[in-house]
Design a protein that fits this description.
single chain; mainly alpha; 77% helix; 0% strand
Length: 177
C-alpha cells in the first residue's frame, strides 16, 4: 500500500505519502521495518517518476508547455537535478518526471539519485522520530505524536513552497512566464 501511495504521488495525484509511511510504520514500529518503508518510498518515487518520464518521452508535450517548464526551472535557485532533492522539502515542481524529460540538461539517472537521497533524508527523519516516539510513549500516544509531526512537516513544506514561489514571482505566485 505504501509503495502504491508513492507511485500515485509521483505520477498523478498528491497522495500525502508521509501519512501512509507513518500509518504503515504503526503496524510494525521497528527499525528493520523502517528500512523496508524507506526502500518502498525510494522505489515508489523512482517508479512513479520513471512512468511519468516515459509517458512524456513517448507522447511528448506541446512546445509552448515545454517553453514554460524550461523558463520555470530557469528561475529556481537550483536549476539542475538537485532540485529533486529540494523538492522533497519545498515542493515547487509538480509532476517532476515530466520536468526530468523536458529539461534537456537534466539526466534521468542523476535526477533519480537526488530523489532517492531526498527520500532517505525526509522519510529517514520521519521514521527516526517515529522510532523515538514508540520507544518512549505508548503506541497510541506515539501514533498521535507522529501524525502531528507529519502534519507539521507537511505544513512546513507548504509554507516553504509558498515562500519560494512568492520570492520567485512576487505578488503573483501563479505566474510562470
Amino acid at each position: 500500500m505504501v509503495l502504491c501511495a508513492f507511485i500515485l504521488d509521483a505520477t498523478v495525484v498528491p497522495a500525502l505519502p508521509e501519512i501512509f509511511i507513518i500509518v504503515g510504520f504503526s503496524y510494525d514500529p521497528t527499525p528493520g521495518f523502517a528500512v523496508v518503508l524507506i526502500v518502498a518510498a525510494i522505489l515508489g518515487e523512482c517508479i512513479g517518476n520513471i512512468i511519468l518520464y516515459t509517458v512524456v518521452e513517448k507522447i511528448g508535450l506541446p512546445k509552448k508547455l515545454k517553453t514554460v517548464m524550461n523558463k520555470y526551472v530557469g528561475i529556481l535557485f537550483v536549476s539542475d537535478e538537485r532540485m529533486m532533492l529540494v523538492n522533497r522539502i519545498a515542493p515547487v515542481i509538480p509532476y517532476s518526471g515530466a520536468f526530468i524529460s523536458v529539461i534537456e540538461t537534466w539526466t534521468l539517472r542523476r535526477a533519480l539519485f537526488y530523489i532517492a537521497l531526498g527520500c532517505v533524508l525526509k522519510y529517514g527523519l520521519i521514521l527516526s522520530m517515529s522510532t523515538f516516539f514508540y520507544q518512549y510513549f505508548t503506541s497510541d500516544v506515539a501514533q498521535t505524536m507522529m501524525i502531528v509531526f507529519v502534519i507539521a512537516i507537511i505544513a512546513i513544506s507548504l509554507i516553504a513552497s509558498y515562500i519560494r514561489k512568492k520570492k520567485m514571482f512576487g505578488d503573483n505566485p501563479k505566474q510562470t512566464e
